[in-house]
Amino acid sequence: MTEPDTLNIVNQEHTHRDDIGSKMGMWLFLFTELLLFGGLFILYASYRFMYKEEFIYAATKLDLLTGTVNTIILLTSSLTIVLAILSLQKNYKKLCLLFLFLTVALGFSFLINKYFEWRAKIEHGLFPGGSELLNTSKGETIFFGLYYSMTGLHALHVIAGLIFILIMTSLVYKNLQYNTNYQKLENSGLYWHLVDIIWIFLFPLFYLIH
Amino acid sequence: MPDTKNTEHLNYSEKNFDPPTEEDFLNSLSDKNAHQEAGFGTYILIWLGLISLTAITVALAGINLAGLTVITALAIAIIKSSLVANYFMHIKFDAPIFKIFIAVSLIIFVLMIVLTFFDLIFRN
Q: Could you tell me if residue A89 is inside a domain?
């Protein structure tokens, strides 16, 4: 067996950078996120199997409009980050920065929406240990426990994603990410899309089952 | 020895072409061609599709579908997430290794769900 003597040719032209390896690493990380949320989804499915009626009744107490608006906000932010990456690849730096700012703005409006949604629930005593929830059935308590932990963990991921995108915005601004070197921005985009996909499943399971 | 099953390789040796180098291999893995296939228009169309599917799933939630409510909602969620993964996350245009990655982790995840439900359903 002979190895082609080309191993040293590839990296001579540029400094060490392995974009495919970087992307693979990002995907492997995303799979650990799948298992993190997957565990909670299995918990949800099991409890829903055990307390079906209570879950359906508890879901009517969530605000469908807020949930729908937040879904549209996240889907649109997924579009703006993918357009930001495409703009950078086509060397439109200003357009890329504009789309990145739009993504950050949409991410923040998701969080603001979430804040008002949670505040309204807490004011009605609908939180673990709250006056309203103590007087309801066990299934309903579990539903709201899952609601707070799953949407809460998701909101933490939105915050993390926003931090990554803000860092990427400064990298693009400083010309450290450009049309032939954009893997860091693309990895942040992958993370943001994963956060979007998780919400795509959270939305029907909490807001649409009544 | 060249692999006899690989006809491309035979062609290379017959015509005295250079065998594929590592650089060719790396190029074949990268998604350099992806962005010619997905432009601004494609992404906006996918986004419109995602918004329409959201409208459909919300509209369907208002109708009483009895036992089918959760299944239809989840089916739409699966369609939406596969659109996001294929186009926004570029999986459609990426090398097969990324599709294998996703298939393996999804199979593991589904196995976890199935095994959990075996326990739940047959517990009593």
A: yes
Q: Please report whether residue A63 resides in a domain.
A: yes
Find which of B1, B24, B50 to mutate to test the A interface (most A CBs within 10 Å of its CB): B50
Nearest to B43 among A31, A42, A83 (CB): A83
Q: What is the Cα–Cα distance from A32 to A28, expressed in whole angstroms? A: 7
**ipTM for the whole complex:** 0.87
Range of the structural domain that residue A107 is part of: 36-207
- The answer to whether position A24 is within a domain reads no
Checking B109-117 for CB contacts under 8 A at 24+ apart, the result is B109/A34, B109/A35, B109/A38, B112/A38, B112/A42, B113/A42, B113/A45, B116/A42, B116/A45, B116/A46, B117/A45, B117/A46, B117/A49
3-state SS, residue A12: helix
Closest in B22, B30, B58 to A6, CB measured: B22
CATH of the domain at A203: 1.20.120.80
A192 found inside a domain: yes
Of A27, A38, A210, nearest to B109 by CB-CB distance is: A38
The count of domains in chain A is: 1
Contacts of B58 in chain A (CB under 8 A): 64, 68, 208
**Residue from A199, A76, A171 nearest B49 by CA:** A76
Angle of helix A183-207 relative to helix B40-61, nearest 10 degrees, comes to 10
Neighboring chain A residues of B84 at a CB cutoff of 8 Å: 78, 193, 196-197, 200
Q: Give the model confidence (pLDDT) of A133-183 as tens digits.
A: 888 888 999 999 999 999 999 999 999 999 999 999 999 999 999 988 999
Q: What is the pLDDT of residues B38-71, one digit of tens each?
A: 789 999 999 999 999 999 999 988 787 767 888 8
CB A161 within 8 A of CB A191: yes
Q: Is A36 on the interface with B (CB under 8 A)?
A: no
